[in-house]
């Protein structure tokens, strides 16, 4: 056998065995085909052994056998590479399936868009964030759920950033399919290839609950800060009220406290005229007089004006006006607070602010209480000034048919009523009056039926005049005067007419007193106004005057009774024992003591009407 033939057959048999081995290990049908091909080629080679003459004739067959064996080898290498590629592809597909599942089950909305922003993919979570199902947003642009809360400049900046290849992160306010607003925490990133943007991926997370909670906390903090600042202003106002000694100081300090606060801009006080209702400012802080005049004109443009509504309704009035007051172009928020105390009207306090939230936390009752506090302070300083002033203004009024408890009694009984003293358990509603030209029983019967009188106690009757202690249900003209810091010098009513003389400290606002009386009582006419220098009696002067009026025996009886504890309770010594000390009878002692007491109390109460 020629060696060439033998080698060719050996190569073919080797190829058949190698192919069978690869077929068994890889189960690749291509190796099965090669196995058959090599088997048939080997059989043919064996059949040609007997007929071949020389080995040279089989040389091509030897080349074919070698090439076939190489084919098996290279196919095995290709199969290994192919299997490796398949393994990699399978692993990649598994990862992609894992990624897809992660995206499908992610709690955040995930979008893929083309470079123009058209949505190509959306995961199921998009419905929880936008309200739209995934199929509804495919082919749409994310502007579908824009809320209009962001301007064009905002979106231009967003697109400029992601188009340059950078990631954009931020918060968006969108509108769900239902129309409700929601807050979104968004991340938008470009997907690039060789520097070119192929797609964009957007991840959106609904943070509405967190945002609303933050806004609530922020609002609570702002409101708490506002409340603290307001309380600070009110504390400052109350502190200044205690320290102020005149009405001008009170009003100036109140206006200054409000105007210097971060919450408020301007504050002023003023009153309305009785004839034409015009408003006249008295104190102001935070603006100039020209701006204040323009503001008052704008404030009083409505009918009724907020000032009339506040004073007539005895309640604060909150309003907005359109003017340029204190630089608040287009609008100012105001509160008009009536300054009234127990029926006395002292004008209004007006506070203005450009902060629309400044009045949100402040209850109306707080401003109402502030108005009463300021008015109370004004009443107190004016009363103090009237009591302590050396220079007073004496006002004389003629009364005709006025409607007040004592005047109604004088008209009904056709008698003369004079006020002797005001004060007692119920302050100015308790008055001691003398009644002439009427029986005491008739006065008691009238008082029991009169609407304006709660009770009447007959004290005594002397020389045709009866003294009564009256508890009035309605406020009287005397009490009205007291609220404005005026003291009553005398008040006498006879039938339907009468005369009232009052004293007011010259430093007080005389017009306010007159206006208040004429507004309350139609039948009251001011007939005289006189300036007086009041004699101020010192304690030492009072002692000397009283001592001069007492006789020696009266002074001795009072002194002995005092040091003997006769006026203590329980008494240390009886009247009989004190009389024995003086070596006089008890009757004589009692007469001297009563006379001394009468002179003492006359000095305290008889000179003029007093208000305690």
- What structural class is derived from the secondary structure elements? alpha+beta
Number of beta-strand segments:
19
The average pLDDT is: 79
Count of alpha/pi helices: 19
Give the quaternary arrangement of the chains: single chain
Helix fraction, binned, reads 40-55%
- Approximate shape: rod-shaped
Strand content: 15-25%
Largest sheet: 9 strands, mixed
Overall tally of domains: 5
Measured between the Cα atoms of the first and last residue, the distance is 158 Å
In the predicted model, the low-confidence regions spanning at least 5 consecutive residues are none
What Rg do the Cα atoms give?
55 Å
Keywords: Membrane, Transcription, Transcription regulation, Transmembrane, Transmembrane helix
Organism: Halorubrum kocurii JCM 14978
Protein name: Bacterio-opsin activator-like protein
Transmembrane segments: 6-24
3D structure, described in words:
The chain folds into five domains: 3-100, no CATH class; 107-211, 2-Layer Sandwich (Beta-Lactamase), CATH 3.30.450.20; 266-370, Beta-Lactamase (2-Layer Sandwich), CATH 3.30.450; 391-533, no CATH class; 539-605, Arc Repressor Mutant, subunit A. It is built from 19 helices and 19 strands. It is rod-shaped. The chain has helices at 3-26, 29-47, 59-105, 126-130, 134-137, 152-163, 208-243, 247-259, 289-299, 306-313, 364-388, 405-413, 440-449, 477-483, 510-520, 539-549, 552-563, 575-582, 586-605; strands spanning 109-113, 119-122, 168-175, 181-193, 196-206, 266-272, 279-285, 317-321, 332-341, 344-353, 391-400, 416-422, 430-436, 453-462, 465-472, 487-494, 497-505, 524-533, 610-611. Helix 1 (3-26) packs antiparallel against helix 2, helix 2 runs antiparallel to helix 3 and helix 7 (208-243) runs parallel beside helix 11. Strands 11, 12, 13, 14, 15, 16, 17, 18 and 19 form a nine-stranded mixed sheet that branches. A five-stranded antiparallel sheet has the order 2-1-5-4-3, sandwiched between helices. A five-stranded antiparallel sheet has the order 7-6-10-9-8, with helices on both faces. With 612 residues, it is an alpha+beta fold.
């Amino acid at each position: 056998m020629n060696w060439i033939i033998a080698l060719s057959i050996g190569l073919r048999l080797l190829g058949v065995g190698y192919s069978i081995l690869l077929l068994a290990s890889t189960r690749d049908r291509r190796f099965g085909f090669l196995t058959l091909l090599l088997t048939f080629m080997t059989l043919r080679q064996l059949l040609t052994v007997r007929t071949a003459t020389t080995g040279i004739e089989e040389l091509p067959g030897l080349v074919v056998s070698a090439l076939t064996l190489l084919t098996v080898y290279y196919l095995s290498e290709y199969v290994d590479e192919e299997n490796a590629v398949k393994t990699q592809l399978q692993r990649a597909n598994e990862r992609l399936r894992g990624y897809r599942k992660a995206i499908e089950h992610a709690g955040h909305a995930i979008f893929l868009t083309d470079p123009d922003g058209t949505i190509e993919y959306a995961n199921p979570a998009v419905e929880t964030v936008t309200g739209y199902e995934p199929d509804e947003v495919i082919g749409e642009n994310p502007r579908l759920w824009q809320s209009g809360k962001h301007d064009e400049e905002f979106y231009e900046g967003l697109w400029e950033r992601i188009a340059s290849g950078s990631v954009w992160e931020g918060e968006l306010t969108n509108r769900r399919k239902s129309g409700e607003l929601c807050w979104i925490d968004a991340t938008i990133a470009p997907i690039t290839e060789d520097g070119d943007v192929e797609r964009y991926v957007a991840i959106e997370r609904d943070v509405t609950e967190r945002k609303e909670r933050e806004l609530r906390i922020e609002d609570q903090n702002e409101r708490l800060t506002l409340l603290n600042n307001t309380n600070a202003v009110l504390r400052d106002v109350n502190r200044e009220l205690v320290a102020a000694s005149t009405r001008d100081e009170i009003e100036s300090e109140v206006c200054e406290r409000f105007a210097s606060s971060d919450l408020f801009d301007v504050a002023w006080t003023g009153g309305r005229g009785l004839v034409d209702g015009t408003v006249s400012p008295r104190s102001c802080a935070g603006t100039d007089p020209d701006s204040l005049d323009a503001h008052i004109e704008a404030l009083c443009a409505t009918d009724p004006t907020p000032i009339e509504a506040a004073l007539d309704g005895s309640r604060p009035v909150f309003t907005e006006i359109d003017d340029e007051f204190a630089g608040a172009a287009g609008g100012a928020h105001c509160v008009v607070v009536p300054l009234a105390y127990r029926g006395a009207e002292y004008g209004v306090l007006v506070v203005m602010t450009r902060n629309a939230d400044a009045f949100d936390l402040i209850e109306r009752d707080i401003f109402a209480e502030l108005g009463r506090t300021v008015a109370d302070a004004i009443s107190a300083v004016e009363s103090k000034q009237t009591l302590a002033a050396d220079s007073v203004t004496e006002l004389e009024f003629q009364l005709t048919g006025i409607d007040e408890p004592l005047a109604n009694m004088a008209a009904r009984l056709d008698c003369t009523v004079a006020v002797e003293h005001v004060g007692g358990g119920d302050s100015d509603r308790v008055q001691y009056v003398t009644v002439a030209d009427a029986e005491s029983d008739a006065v008691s019967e009238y008082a029991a039926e009169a609407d304006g009188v709660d009770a009447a106690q007959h004290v005594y009757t002397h020389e045709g005049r009866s003294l009564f202690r009256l508890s009035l249900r309605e406020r009287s003209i005397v009490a009205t005067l007291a609220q404005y810091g005026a003291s009553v010098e005398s008040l006498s009513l006879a039938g339907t007419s009468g005369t009232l003389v009052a004293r007011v400290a010259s430093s007080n606002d005389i017009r306010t007193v007159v206006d208040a009386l004429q507004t309350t009582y139609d039948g009251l006419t001011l007939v005289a106004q006189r300036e007086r220098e009041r004699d101020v009696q010192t304690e030492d002067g009072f002692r000397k005057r009283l001592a001069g009026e007492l006789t020696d025996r009266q002074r001795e009886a009072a002194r002995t009774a005092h040091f003997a504890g006769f006026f203590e309770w329980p008494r240390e010594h009886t009247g009989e024992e004190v009389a024995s000390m003086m070596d006089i009878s008890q009757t004589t002692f009692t007469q001297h003591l009563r006379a001394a007491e009468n002179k003492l109390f006359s000095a305290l109460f008889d000179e003029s009407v007093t208000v305690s």
